UniProtKB/TrEMBL annotation, chain A:
Pfam families: CMD. InterPro entries: AhpD-like, AhpD_core, AlkhydPrxdase/COmuclacdeCOase, CMD-like. Keywords: Oxidoreductase, Peroxidase. SUPFAM superfamilies: AhpD-like. It comes from Wenyingzhuangia marina. It comes from the Bacteria. This is Alkylhydroperoxidase/carboxymuconolactone decarboxylase family protein. The lineage of its organism: Bacteria, Pseudomonadati, Bacteroidota, Flavobacteriia, Flavobacteriales. The keyword Kinase does not apply. GO terms for molecular function: peroxiredoxin activity. Residues 23-103 form the Carboxymuconolactone decarboxylase-like domain. PANTHER family: ALKYL HYDROPEROXIDE REDUCTASE AHPD, BLR3452 PROTEIN.
UniProtKB/TrEMBL annotation, chain B:
Its cofactor is [4Fe-4S] cluster. Keywords: Iron, Iron-sulfur, Metal-binding, S-adenosyl-L-methionine. PROSITE patterns: RADICAL_SAM. It holds the Pfam family DUF3641. Signal peptide: none annotated. This is Arsenosugar biosynthesis radical SAM protein ArsS. It comes from the Bacteria. Residues 44-289 form the Radical SAM core domain. It comes from Wenyingzhuangia gilva.
């Protein structure tokens, strides 16, 4: 058994998930490929969104992949960092907004 | 920054670069050597198609010292082609029937006999006459200011390197001030008609990634460059070539020093595309160094891997033998076959 949960090399083997369930695996990759095609959003914009979401889901594989993808597309570090801050702001905002629920509950229960 | 040669860096010796390609991940079987990979698709040995391009390296002197330079060029390099060798190039070019003459360097314009060579070569009437200009040289000294006009007079096809359409990345790769000088030079080229629709004067740009990663999609990058250069500077150009950095010379130094070498080679091998092998540059090109030696491409020139024929010098030029030769390959060739492939003309397969 390997000593760490993450191995960067596993990313390259992502395609192998189809080996255990070909139909669902292939459907996933087809969907994934389609999502990232140029559409109403440019492929570049989609790459930035993916980078931001990678940070909120804290997926080391995705961060690795979409940092490289951004470099290939000529994204600048300022753009990438701003995207990460957008993700972080939403994530912290999502935490903090629940404070309203806490406040209401606290007030309701208190005399 | 100085050249590897000036710094007496061990990688200045091509033998040490090749030794690196034959050790580590390629010796322990972790990655397949290029020859093996090409054999899998029955394309080994690599054979040339009809010779079309004479790529002449006029010398390794350059006004810049770019961090990624595969030539290890710089102001401290003194290797310069003489008029005798230039004349020999022209004689053999005529004899060979090649239709494209491609001048490179260093900065070819810095060769004191550059204009003479262009004038003489123009008389032969090649179909496509390329000069690879780093742009900044056109603004480096007053004596170069008239080069756009000179290029126009000889109907030169200008191919210029611009790593990015913004200052930051460009200057990081090529040195401070390079971006501003390049923009100025592009404006001068536009002014005489280069890159402008209807003039027939071709101005292409070359994009190299500024780091240990492969270039993105060529046509997407072209669109972005076109839009940004037009909006920000009112600059036009014809095509953008996205070129993969080959792991040799100063780029190899960077890969090793930044501990990216193994991952980069892994990425190149992973992106190996047998279709791209059919159109690699060495298939229709002969590369000539400042001394008149013959190579399969400018990369092999820098690795001192001469053509595998009996005569390896222009004076022994034998078209028949060259057409029958095996192309000399090593692990650096993975740079030409990664993804959509890469040659001096950019992406080579769809
Ligand atoms: S990459 Fe081109 S411009 Fe830069 S140092 Fe090398 S030859 Fe000169
Ligand atoms: S490096 Fe030269 S010899 Fe190797 S594939 Fe590329 S063009 Fe051909």
């Amino acid at each position: 058994m390997q000593k760490t949960y993450y191995d960067p090399k596993d990313l390259k083997d992502f395609g192998k998930i189809s080996e255990w369930d070909q139909e669902l695996g292939e459907k996933f990759f087809e969907y994934y490929g389609k999502v990232f095609e140029e559409g109403a959003l440019t492929a570049r914009e989609k790459s930035l969104i993916a980078l931001a979401v990678s940070h909120t889901v804290q997926c080391a594989y995705c961060i690795d992949a979409y940092t490289s993808d951004g470099l290939k597309r000529g994204l600048e570090r300022e753009e990438m960092m701003e995207a990460v801050h957008v993700a972080a702001a939403i994530k912290s905002g999502a935490t903090l907004v629940h404070g309203v629920q806490m406040m209401k509950k606290y007030d309701k229960l208190s005399m | 920054m100085k050249s590897l040669a000036k710094r007496k860096n061990s990688l200045a010796n091509p033998k040490n670069q090749i030794a690196l390609f034959n050790s580590g991940v390629f010796a322990n079987g972790e990655l397949p050597i290029f020859k093996q990979k090409v054999s899998e698709s029955n394309q080994y040995p690599l054979k040339p198609n009809k010779l079309e391009i004479f790529q002449v390296n006029l010398g390794y002197m350059c006004n810049q010292v770019c961090a990624h330079c595969h030539v290890d060029a710089g102001p401290d390099r003194k290797e310069i082609m003489t008029t005798e060798t230039m004349q020999l190039c022209l004689n053999k070019l005529k004899e060979s029937g090649a239709t494209t003459l491609d001048l490179t360097g260093g900065a070819p314009e810095m060769n004191p006999n550059f204009r003479w060579f262009v004038e003489e070569a123009s008389k032969i009437g090649v179909k496509d006459f390329i000069v690879r200009s780093n742009l900044t040289i056109l603004r480096a000294n007053k004596k170069y200011y008239d080069l756009p006009e000179f290029f126009k007079k000889h109907n030169i096809h200008v191919v210029s390197s611009l790593p990015f359409y913004k200052k930051g990345k460009t200057d990081k790769q090529r040195g401070d001030g390079v971006f501003d000088a390049s923009i100025e030079a592009l404006k001068e080229l536009n002014k005489v008609g280069y890159g402008i629709t209807g003039t027939g004067l071709k101005l292409d740009l070359v994009f190299n990634p500024s780091g240990a990663f492969l270039p993105g999609n060529q046509s997407e990058l072209e669109q972005e460059f076109k839009k940004a250069l037009k909006e920000d500077f009112n600059i036009s150009f014809n095509h953008l070539f996205a070129i993969t950095n080959l792991p040799i010379s100063r780029f190899l130094e960077f890969l090793v020093a930044s501990e990216n070498y193994e991952d980069y080679m892994d990425e190149l091998v992973d992106a190996y595309n047998p279709e791209a092998v059919k159109n690699v540059m060495c298939k229709n090109t002969i590369s000539i160094d400042w001394n008149g030696n013959l190579y399969d491409c400018d990369f092999n020139q820098q690795l001192n891997l001469k053509v595998a024929t009996q005569g390896t010098h222009l004076s022994e030029f034998d078209l028949d033998a060259l057409q029958k030769r095996d192309i000399v390959v090593s692990q650096h060739c993975y740079g030409c076959t990664a993804g959509a492939g890469s040659s001096c003309q950019g992406t080579i397969s769809d």
